[in-house]
Amino acid sequence: MKKKLLCLASAAAVFVNVSGALAFTDIVSSQYRNEIEYFEQNGIVSGREEGEFYPDEALTRAEGAKIIYNICYADDETLADDDFLKKELFADMNRDFWAFKEVNTLVKYGIVNGIGNDLFAPNDTLTGIQLLTMLINTTGYTNFVDREADWIEENTAVGKEYKFLDGIEFDLNRPITRAETLKLVYNALDIPFVFSTGLNYNETTGKLDPVYEFADGTNELGLVTLRNYIEL
Length: 232
Prior knowledge:
By secondary structure, this protein is mainly alpha-helical. The chain is built from eight helices and two strands, in the order αααααααββα.
């Protein structure tokens, strides 16, 4: 139950493989080798074939949903009897689809949605900006996105301001590779979640404005990060 509540919002040490053995044979020259091995070691990702990860292949929309699900929801036992997760929400994804549960879960919590016309396009490639938006939605930073403005510009700006994009040099507008995906997710591991904690009266507008707080360990919210979901 705790994990479910934490993900409703809507120590960065480099991983070292102490055994000396590579998780995958095809990541030796990858600049994101450490990130790949971290997520493999923690059961978040696996290869497409035994011993190979295919780091330079594009990630699909379903694979992106699977990664977020594995981090935030895989251990949430309360989802087992959730009727919403059993619904066929999209015409191109039935209950037999390998990531049916994962996609439905992320739709339920507002992390992803379809592409229109009752389609999800699970096998289409995922772009970097789409993955960034998923991470922003997961951690609650969507509260700082102006929904009336251009979604790409807004999520890019939030990503830069709150350090999701630190060290990211690849083009977010093209399909993101499997290795780049894990670099972007790794960047988000220690970014504290944002929660809405109440309302404040705005004397200028005469309206109630939401109050947002960072779960950074300095207040009663404690420390809530994606790394907590993986390692605790």
